[in-house]
């Protein structure tokens, strides 16, 4: 399916290029989409940069899920979007004025003035939440950082709204949509902006996690794989392309603040770690000869089941761990998170996922390592009692959800949540666990 999506992406852009060659005023031209809401079967990450640049107002797509990288990228650009609107055919929306309700993930046709006012109501943040880190009702301290893609747009908002730091900076936006590799100086300026915005706070920055659904020129043109999602991507790509790793790692270290952790993505075990460590050490030594030395910490994304299986051999060698709940769920349950046809099987409440979280928390606690929950699961307020009960205390969520997450966490009592989690771990199906949560 991932390969089909890649080919569809390439085909779509080929036809768009042909349309502009034959008719520069064609409706296929992105320039004609300014101030419009795009209706489509599927939106691809490679299209989003161009659509943003012409100033579209929103995107409604029939395919995809909230956990897809296209949706994540749209959110980072502040472009309202909603996907999987199967009960409303596109032809009913064409040419009409519509409202996109990003909170309820819905589309409103024939909307009223009252509908507009309701969606435009600003959120009034609690000043106490912004001013300090929060605690559970029972007194245990918590850490709620922001997950961001775009440091220029999202970092100032995250700081204003009360993020305790940056729990996960996805760095792909500096590469997506480029026709050439970004330079070290371009990346340095981008990262410097983030570090200055969150001076004196923890920042967890992930190395390039380029996969089949985040196409860039140097991957899509040079990689021919049956299954790109499980192919030469993320850390494996950086091992095969040390020039890319060198450019990015140099930029990060030059810009880094005192409390910076570099996160390695999509690690399956020691094989990748040994190789990436060898290359990285050479780059760090090179910087030292130039007088650039930083006290950098290192962490791992936990998103491959094999890493969880042998976690006890890994945990003591790194400073922190970020659970990528989207991919960990996808790979553990063998469910494509972008495929609406199997969405019913993509469940964070699957007993295997909960057991993994409990194991990760236990081992990190034993070794005094920081464990941060990332991905969609971390901002699901209905799951927070269960997550707290499993022992997790650190979260990374989109900045727009920080207030809701912090507000809910402050209402929770650890002992009640622990009892809930204990009961959940005895159950056999997601349905049983979700019934317990209600």
Q: What report would you give on this structure?
A:
With 438 residues, the chain is an alpha/beta fold. The chain folds into two domains: 2-120, Phosphohistidine domain (Glucose Oxidase, domain 1); 127-437, Phosphoenolpyruvate-binding domains (TIM Barrel), CATH 3.20.20. Helix content is 42%, strand content 14%. The chain has helices spanning 2-22, 45-54, 69-76, 113-120, 127-131, 154-161, 184-197, 217-220, 234-240, 242-255, 270-289, 305-309, 325-333, 351-366, 384-389, 402-409, 414-424, 430-437; strands at residues 37-40, 58-61, 81-83, 98-101, 106-109, 143-148, 165-170, 202-206, 260-264, 297-302, 320-324, 370-374, 394-398. The strands form three sheets. The chain has an eight-stranded parallel barrel, surrounded by four helices. The protein has a three-stranded parallel sheet with strand order 1-2-3, with helices on one face. α9 (234-240) crosses α11 (270-289). The radius of gyration is 22 Å and the shape is globular.
